[in-house]
Design a protein that fits this description.
117 residues; mainly beta; Ubiquitin-like (UB roll); five-stranded mixed β-sheet; 7 strands
């Protein structure tokens, strides 16, 4: 299987991915962290990225997180993107939101609890 070079502009990370593996899965296997990871199934939008250069194919992406306009501009979900050549992409620097209004970020949050008297 031919391996393609994947470059994440935001982080400068480079890894390899075959056409039978999605970009997010290959990134994780290479221990890279340039694209946020969420549900790994296309529903949350955490792994939204913009392809800056290269050929690729995608599987069905939720319109709740990637609009037709965004897709036409090169936005993809890394978990649904399969390279067909070397790719250069950039992680989208936005907080992913679901249609229902659920919002999350990929960072850890602390919870302050009151001490019981």
């Amino acid at each position: 299987m031919t391996q393609f070079q994947i470059t994440i502009d935001n982080s400068g990370e480079v890894f390899h991915c075959g056409s039978d593996r999605n970009v997010l899965e290959a990134m994780e296997a290479a221990l890279c962290k340039g694209i946020p990871v969420g549900c790994r199934n296309g529903g949350c939008g955490a792994c939204k990225a913009r392809v800056l250069d290269g050929r690729y194919g995608t599987r069905k992406m939720s319109r709740a997180v990637i609009s037709e306009e965004e897709q036409a501009e090169g936005y993809v979900l890394a978990c649904k993107t399969y390279p067909q050549g070397d790719l250069r992409l950039a992680a989208a620097a936005v907080v992913a939101k679901r249609v229902a209004g659920f919002e999350f970020s990929m960072g850890w949050q602390s919870i302050d609890r009151k001490k019981e008297a």
